[in-house]
Automatic annotation (TrEMBL):
UniProt superkingdom: Eukaryota
Matching InterPro entries: Zn2-C6_fun-type_DNA-bd_sf, Zn2Cys6_DnaBD
Region (Disordered): 1-28
Signal peptide stretch: none
GO molecular function annotation: DNA-binding transcription factor activity, RNA polymerase II-specific; zinc ion binding
SMART domains, alphabetized: GAL4
Biased composition (Basic and acidic residues): 1-15
Protein name per Swiss-Prot or TrEMBL: Zn(2)-C6 fungal-type domain-containing protein
Protein source organism: Postia placenta MAD-698-R-SB12
Amino acid sequence: MADRDYSHRNDKSDDSDGESYSPRTPRRTPMACQFCRGRKMKCDGRPICANCSRRGIACSYVPV
Ligand SMILES: [Zn+2]
Ligand SMILES: [Zn+2]
């Protein structure tokens, strides 16, 4: 399954420029929960991230 994605990435040289640059959908950036976002902390993206679990608060993600 992952084989397809891998070969597709190597093809970016043939593709037109700007295709891979999409600021609207930053897929590489892991999603941060609300708490981490507000505090600009590093979120591990878990259902209950480390920062929230450590503080014992509710970890919530807002779909963009
Ligand atoms: Zn978080
Ligand atoms: Zn969290």
